[in-house]
Request: fold
Amino acid sequence: MAVDTSEIRKEIKKIVGKKFLPLKIIDELVEKSVKENLTKEQIRELVKRTIEIYERNLIDPSEACGIVGAQSIGEPGTQMTMRTFHYAGVAEINVTLGLPRLIEIVDARSIPSTPMMNIYLKDKYRKNAELAKKVANQIELTELNEIAEIETDLTDLTITVKPDKDTLNKKGLTIEELFEIIKKMKKISAEIRGDEIFIALDEPSYKNLLDISEKLKLLKVKGVEGINRVIIRNEPGEGYVIYSEGSNLEEVLKIEGVDPYRTITNDVQAVGRVLGIEAARNMIIQEAYNTLSEQGLNVDKRHIMLVADIMTVDGSIKAIGRHGVSGEKASVLSRAAFEITVNHLLDAGRRGEKDTLEGVSENIIVGQPVNLGTGAIQLVMKREKMKRD
Amino acid sequence: MPQKEPTFDITKHQLVPKHIILSEKEKKEVLEKYGVDETQLPKILNTDPVVVAIGAKPGQLLKIIRKSPTAKESIVYRIVVENNE
Reply:
């Protein structure tokens, strides 16, 4: 059977020839041809018809696909819940959803309001609860005041750190490791005394004592900056997956046991920074689509793809709006039509800008037919033909 | 647990489509086929992690084979440009 399909595929590709059909349709054609056991003649007819229908359904040149896309996303968008704080997918992790999230995506916000990551693990780790826990411990940010009591002695101007043994064990830390971390702090000298760590100041003073004890409280003992909480879940068919509140793609990908090829974050800018513009484009599509469909709204992926394309054409992620795509349009009138009209006109006047009236809004402003759809073509009449009729 | 330096290839991440550097000849063919010049193409910065990883230089044209939910596979082009920021 396997040989058969490749034979038919070749045949179909030959018929398609210089014309074009997407791979998905070719796959479907191959499947159908095999299933129905079509003859060569029938396949030829099938492909011919398919191409005909495909070409008829292509977007026409000068079609206002942007407007269609905007409407298609905007109309269902009005039905989105204005304010939603849901627990999506993962229990206990709070994720911004609905309209606020959609706005966040198209605004290309540098940090999402509820960053989160789906951290997948390598084969060895994802089937083993112990190992998964260990990785999670590496990721979750632990500060000193979570695992130890910090006592300041005002008479001697010293600090004593009393780690809690149970929590220490849970986090997989030893007192020596803790000591090594504390020792790296500036302006102090530390030593281990039994189960405690004793800290003396280099320049004893009240102010220094308070400063240092504050710093100690927030000292990063373990984990990744920005990851406040992690949750491990056993997903059917996958094994243990770590979900995190907070996101730091750069650092998490470096941690051993994390599968760097599948781990993702909802922070689009971070994806762009670490994995490149194409990955960011994919992420925008995925996030926007999921946000919409989670609310039960059916928006065709093509519209969202167009938005993502526009946001990433320049090589960096641009917001849809004043600070991004709309603010960088070449035409003054078009920019003025969008927002902060007076400023745009004033600045343009001062600079002596020219408007070549190529876009849509400029032409509407001056009262000309727009260069779009039926307005994009001009009629040319052949006089000889007219005479013959 | 010992922490290792990152030794993974970002081009193999599930979100990253295949980027291929085109030769001068292929680049010309693409520009001719679509009847455009370099400035009209979508851009990709030379500081983009993928561009760095595959070693593309400004001026080169990348062929990107995206996985598309509607067409299964779609081919786009991006020209490498200098990052001015």
In short: Chain B is about 20% helix and 30% strand. Strands of chain B lie at 18-21, 43-45, 61-68, 72-81.
